Amino acid sequence: MKLSRLLLAAFALGHAFAAVAGEAEIRKNLAAKIPHFAKIDEVSKSPMPGLYEVRVNDFEIYYTDDQGRYLLQGNMIDVNARKNLTEARVEKLSEVAYDKLPFKDAIKIVRGNGKRKLAVFEDPNCGYCKQFERDLLNVDNVTIHLFLYAVLGPDSVAKSKNIWCAKDKAKTWDDWMHRGVTPPSVECDSATVTRNREFGQKYNITGTPTLIFSDGSRTPGAIPAAQVEKRLASLN
Questions:
Q1: What is the DSSP string of 90-129?
Q2: What is the pLDDT of residues 58-69, one digit of tens each?
Q3: Is-above-0.90 flag for pTM?
Q4: Could you give the domains of the chain?
């Protein structure tokens, strides 16, 4: 019995040593051959035996062997669970707690009793955002924190600044998104537009609209009001 325990301990130690050795070899070889991997955030075993996950630049996921000789970029799919493991991993890495969002840089829109919570990152020149905004009118009893996320060029930045500087931000936003009324040119401290873009880049918000629900989960794209309603209902 004592010998068996010793053998098991030695086996576990050997696996741990191999994992550490594998990580060190991966870091060394990839950094030596590819400048992009000079700074690797994390090396860990992937769900597929013999394959390691290599993470760089916070959210970029690659896969390699235990020596860093071969490199794969793409999605790992669990065919039994029908789940995109790479996508799920990136979503987990870029998760942000709802109460940690920079609400001072958002336009607050309250509908009905406002009990339910939703944050949305939108560009004023985004066609999908305009479609989403029209559909969102069908969702009531919600507080929406709208983050002006100007990523589609200089005109988006200018419009976002004018909306932020308007006396009635929410009305100016609605007038533009629903009725095509161009936001009047107004001057003020509009650094919030830059801060929102920096925040979005930090947390891997790559498109508009992007929705963040009160549990920290996010949904990219202009989803129908029925889906928004279903998610909000499940959290309350």
A1: HHHHT---GGGS-GGGSEEEEETT--EEEEEEE-TT-HHH
A2: 889 999 999 999
A3: no
A4: 2-93 (3.10.450.70), 98-234 (3.40.30.10)
